[in-house]
């Protein structure tokens, strides 16, 4: 299965879970795409590409893992509908950026909307 298909399956599950919990299907959602890596320069270049692609980008943060390894993380955020098509279009924009710079695309998330 391709990486895109994996994300499509996960996207369906996240959307279904939110809707089952009563989240508003017609609301505008802030979709936060998560990136991580160990090389600040690569992460910074990826963040610039995400910004150029029309995403709001958060500042990089340090995350210390259980074994003491330090990861750098940032989010690329874009508002849109909670639909598989809209979110997968964003994922399709972002996966090549992660690949280009050798960083990890760690999926996406959003918040419950009344």
TrEMBL record:
UniProt subcellular location: Cytoplasm
Name of the gene: rraB
Protein name: Regulator of ribonuclease activity B
Keywords tagged on the record: Cytoplasm
Organism: Zobellella denitrificans
Subunit record text: Interacts with the C-terminal region of Rne.
SUPFAM superfamilies reported in the protein's UniProt record: Hypothetical protein VC0424
GO annotations of cellular component type: cytoplasm
MF (Gene Ontology): endoribonuclease inhibitor activity; enzyme binding
